[in-house]
Design brief:
Blueprint (H helix, E strand, L loop, with lengths): L3 H33 L3 H24 L7 H29 L2 E2 L2 H20 L13 H25 L28 H36 L4 H11 L1 H12 L3 H29 L10 H18 L3 E2 L1 H19 L2
Antiparallel strand pairs: 1-2
Helix pairs in contact: 1-2, 1-6, 1-8, 2-6, 2-9, 3-7, 3-8, 3-9, 3-10, 3-11, 4-5, 4-9, 4-10, 5-9, 6-7, 8-9, 10-11
């Protein structure tokens, strides 16, 4: 055990490195997005973070003892709450303060939300109502949930990037005025070599974010234990750290009056968190005969329903102001407080 001052110094250094890794990840993702265009740029960042997050969850599951069966559930649920209330709420609130009213396309955003609702209910709610004891699936049910999750997420990506890509682009992208064309001048587009280098640096930065988050987790666990908070709060804290790159990118896009990009990234991140995590943990659970508990409790189901109801209303008219952002942030604050004091 490190002496107290040295331990504080090490934790502070890791925190500083984490912030630097997040800033670099966001920068590299912006370069890639400039080269590939939307929605590929946001998709690359969301999927990259989620793949590494899945690797972290699986590694913790394989090494954890008592309580390891709850890690996937707590991580996925926390990711949905953080993204759909925290990130989207802050993006709309700050963007609304700067630009008064933000607009986005209903078609793509509503499609993503529909897939997210289906995935969340299938994996986090239905396990509470099966014939198995506790909030669990049988092996066959778990395999089905994993296959359906992956299939639905794959269909969403196909729609987003190929079949109906225009649904996920801002309204003005198809009819830019002459003055706007300077922002997409081909001479300013990153070269292929620079884009490939940015992709490598992005992956390195995201790996660093996850590893630093994992390294900081003992300090977080210790602080949470001293505060007498539930163990599930550790999952929330780690999820916040891992989702920092996407959160910063989403808020920055909203501040630049690009709420469509912000929503693409936010909803896409939540979808990837379920669509890639559930198949992976299902494979690990069945392959290694490990217990897996997916169903959230009554309070969690209430927060899920409230979050999705508010999200439907927020998306309904294709415009948002600080009010919608404030509502989501209030729900997020309630979620955090009740997680600390259940």
């Amino acid at each position: 055990m490190l002496p107290y001052p040295e331990g504080i110094l090490q934790t502070s250094l890791m925190a500083a490195l984490l912030i630097a890794a997040v800033i670099n990840a966001v920068h590299q993702a912006e370069i890639i997005a400039h080269k590939t265009g939307e929605p590929f740029g946001t998709l690359i960042l969301a999927v990259s973070v989620t793949i590494i997050e899945v690797a972290l969850i699986v590694s913790i599951m394989l090494s954890a003892g008592l309580g390891g069966e709850l890690i996937a559930r707590d991580s996925v649920f926390a990711a949905i709450m953080i993204v759909m209330n925290g990130v989207i709420g802050l993006s709309i609130f700050l963007g609304g303060l700067r630009h008064r009213e933000l607009s986005f396309r209903i078609e793509g955003t509503n499609s993503g939300l529909a897939v997210l609702i289906a995935l969340a209910m299938l994996t986090l709610v239905i396990p509470n109502f099966t014939s198995t004891p506790g909030p669990t699936f049988t092996d066959s049910q778990l395999i089905l949930a994993g296959v359906l999750s992956l299939a639905l997420y794959g269909t969403y990506v196909f729609i987003q990037t190929i079949r109906h890509r225009s649904y996920f682009l801002p309204h003005e992208s198809s009819d830019l005025s002459e003055s706007d064309t300077t922002t997409i001048d081909a001479s300013k587009t990153p070269s292929t070599l620079k884009t490939l280098m940015s992709l490598i640096f992005l992956i390195v930065s995201l790996v660093a974010v996850v590893l630093l988050a994992k390294a900081l987790s003992p300090s977080i666990e210790s602080a949470i234990a001293k505060a007498g908070a539930p163990r599930s709060v550790v999952g929330i804290a780690i999820a916040m750290l891992v989702l920092l790159p996407e959160g910063v990118s989403a808020v920055k896009a909203a501040l630049n009056n690009q709420l469509q990009t912000s929503l693409n990234l936010s909803i896409g991140s939540a979808l990837a968190s379920i669509g890639l995590t559930i198949p992976a943990v299902a494979l690990v659970s069945v392959g290694f005969n490990m217990p897996l508990s997916l169903g959230v409790n009554a309070l969690g189901m209430t927060f899920l329903c409230l979050t999705f109801l508010l999200s439907i209303l927020t998306i309904a008219i294709g415009r948002a102001t600080v009010l919608q952002g404030a509502v989501h942030l209030v729900v997020f604050a309630a979620y955090l407080f009740l997680s600390l004091v259940p």
